[in-house]
């Protein structure tokens, strides 16, 4: 499958070199698109340097409003312009291991969405505090319940989509700023009837760079999920019969 891998980055200079080389090792033919929000640590320059010797490495440098969500949508739209069969999204802090990429892409031959999951048998998180793991478990349970998603790890940012699914979910109408983009896009794909599959991954906590996740961002995720779940339920309500009171 012709594949484009999207890497959203904010201050990931220290992780990009080993990450891009590992992706290149496991998916030699893939186009790699780094979506950088003008990181002050020089992440973009690092990509430009590597792109001199790697014609399939691309940089989308965003100078406007920063945000994981905005970068995610911009990345998907730019990736689709490369006419891939599928688009893979993964974090750029080495917490998502590239060794799973061939299996993930293979699954997209018979599924519309493939998710690297910490919550299916064989999946786990290593190197994260028990409080952080508790947060992950609680938030994914809440998201799954509110959005009625047939997915164990609804918060995983390691996933692939067949391009036709991405073209069917109205990407250009999505106005999501933060990490809630992860749940929003999964929910839209599910509502479009996408065939979703999960496979186990070992998630490794970042060892370099700064986490961008804050409590405020986590609350914004849950608020957004609550909002779209309400909208969906309203949409699913059978139309009230128009009573002729005349
Ligand atoms: N372009 C862009 N990328 C972002 C932004 N915020 C985070 N990212 C990237 O999105 C991915 C996930 O962000 P992380 O900071 O790792 O969030 P997290 O995994 O919840 O937190 P950690 O446990 O600390 O890793 C990483 O590759 C980040 O570099 C942003 O505002 N813009
Ligand atoms: Mg991370």
How much helix, percentage-wise, in residues? 40-55%
Ranges with pLDDT <50 over ≥5 residues? Answer: none
The CATH architecture is: Alpha-Beta Complex
- What is the fourth-level CATH superfamily? Spore Coat Polysaccharide Biosynthesis Protein SpsA, Chain A
Number of distinct beta strands = 9
Number of domains: 1
Bound molecules: guanosine-5'-triphosphate, magnesium ion
Number of helices: 8
Which geometry do the CA atoms define?
globular
Describe this structure in words.
The chain has 246 residues and is of the alpha/beta class. The protein is built from eight helices and nine strands. Strands 3-2-1-4-7-5-8 form a seven-stranded mixed beta sheet, with helices on both faces. Strands 6-9 form a two-stranded parallel ribbon. Helix 1 packs parallel to helix 2 and helix 5 (130-147) packs parallel to helix 8 (215-236). It is globular and about 65 Å long. The model has no long low-confidence stretch (mean pLDDT 93). The protein binds guanosine-5'-triphosphate and magnesium ion. Guanosine-5'-triphosphate (GTP) binds next to strand 1, strand 2 and helix 3.
């Amino acid at each position: 499958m012709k594949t484009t891998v999207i890497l959203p980055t904010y201050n990931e200079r220290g992780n990009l070199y080993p990450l891009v080389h590992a992706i290149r090792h496991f998916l030699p033919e893939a186009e790699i698109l780094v979506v950088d929000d003008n990181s002050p640590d020089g992440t973009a320059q690092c990509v430009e340097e590597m792109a001199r010797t790697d014609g399939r490495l691309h940089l989308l440098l965003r100078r406007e409003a920063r945000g994981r969500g905005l970068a995610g949508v911009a990345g998907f739209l730019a990736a689709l312009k490369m006419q891939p069969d599928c688009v893979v999204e993964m974090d750029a802090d080495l917490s998502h291991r590239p060794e799973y990429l061939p299996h993930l892409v293979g699954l997209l031959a018979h599924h519309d969405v493939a998710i690297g999951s910490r919550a299916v048998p064989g999946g786990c998180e290593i190197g994260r505090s028990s409080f952080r793991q508790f947060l992950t478990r609680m938030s994914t349970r809440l998201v799954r319940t509110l959005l009625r998603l047939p997915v164990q790890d609804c918060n995983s940012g390691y996933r692939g989509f067949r391009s036709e699914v991405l073209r069917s979910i109205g990407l250009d109408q999505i106005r999501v700023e933060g990490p809630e983009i992860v749940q929003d896009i999964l929910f839209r794909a599910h509502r479009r009837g996408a065939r979703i599959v999960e496979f186990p991954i070992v998630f490794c906590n970042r060892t370099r760079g700064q986490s961008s996740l804050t409590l405020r961002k986590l609350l914004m995720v849950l608020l957004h999920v609550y909002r779209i779940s309400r909208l969906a339920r309203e949409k699913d309500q059978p139309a009230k019969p128009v009573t002729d009171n005349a």
